[in-house]
Amino acid sequence: MNDWKDGVNFAVTVCDREGRILEMNAKSRATFAKSGGGDLVGKSLLDCHPEPARSKLKDMLARPRTNAYTIEKNGVKKLIYQTPWTRDGQPAGLVELSLELPAELPHFVRKP
Predict the structure, then answer these.
(1) Which of 5, 55, 94, 112 has the fewest Cβ atoms nearer than 10 Å?
(2) 74's torsion region: left (phi>0), alpha (psi -120 to 50) or beta?
(3) pLDDT band at 2 (very low <50, low <70, confident <90, very high)
(4) What is the pTM of this model?
């Protein structure tokens, strides 16, 4: 089951503690095709972001925490979720999930 990440319709990008891209699933490679796609693996995630995003990511690598927000670009709304991943209980880098959102998104409040 090694290829599950290439069969999902959202982008998964993983970097190490220095910000070097370790993995990109198929959707991530397609999303960032104009910037190099799969050739970005091994390169710095920081080089792919303008300021102030670059400084924020650098700080998140130094002081791991989750960053979640929505964006809209070319009429496509996305949820961006950046969060630390760990190895042996220690921060090992960041994972970014990028999911396209429908224009109208239902919101449910669940009661216990």
Answers:
(1) 112
(2) left
(3) low
(4) 0.91
